[in-house]
Specification:
- This protein is mainly beta and 125 residues long.
- The chain contains no helices and eleven strands.
- The strands form two sheets. Strands 2, 4, 5, 6, 9, 10 and 11 form a seven-stranded mixed β-sheet that branches.
- Strand 4 and strand 5 form a beta hairpin.
């Protein structure tokens, strides 16, 4: 699976962005899909996941109630809607997919074997 992330940019605090991740090479409708992010000088951290085709979503506490992960199977694309952004959300955002993740590993980086190239999100105060 090849993943192409887009939609990042510069936004003021309180603003919104919608990230997209287009998949090619394989249909990902039955895959688990996730977004991770890596801020300056930080480890890559989990943001949100959509477990396989069951529709179950998971979020990091820091983004819960502000971010929404979704997928459009017809477009083979994953989205991350980000609202009420803060400077702490500044990071490179990566999409990832996995055909083998189980429920207990869906928030783990190690469960994902296909990664997009990352898209920069910068939130100014």
């Amino acid at each position: 699976v090849q993943l192409q992330a887009s939609g990042g940019g510069l936004v003021q605090a309180g603003g919104s962005l919608r990230l997209s991740c287009a998949a090619s090479g394989r249909t990902i409708s039955s895959y688990s899909k996730a977004w991770f992010r890596q801020g300056p000088g930080k480890e890559r951290e989990f943001v949100a996941a959509l477990f396989r085709s069951y529709g179950r979503t998971y979020y990091a506490d820091s983004v819960k109630d502000r971010f929404t992960i979704s997928a459009d199977n017809a477009k083979n694309t994953v989205f991350l809607q980000m609202n009420n952004l803060t400077p702490e959300d500044t990071a490179v955002y990566y999409c990832a997919t996995s055909g083998r993740a189980i429920l207990s590993t869906v928030t783990s980086r190690d469960a994902y074997d296909s990664w997009g190239q990352g898209t920069q999100v910068t939130v100014s105060s």
